Amino acid sequence: MTETVKRWRKSSRSSNHTACVEVGRVGDGAAVRDTKDRSLGYFTTTSTQWQTFLEAVKTDRFS
């Protein structure tokens, strides 16, 4: 976690303050963290990984 996250924003998929995550741009990919416990840190993905994840969410593959 040495990369600097440019700007965090709350996911539009977060609801009811029980499943909140924040996403930020880092390098050519994304960083993700738990809004409720930011002290846990974050994980990063490559641009390809992030695009694959977003496509899976958009096509409802996690239901």
UniProtKB/TrEMBL annotation:
Domain of life according to the entry: Bacteria
Region span, Disordered: 1-20
Entry-linked InterPro entries: DUF397
Pfam name, any one: DUF397
Sequence ranges assigned to domain DUF397 in this UniProt record: 7-58
Name this polypeptide is given: DUF397 domain-containing protein
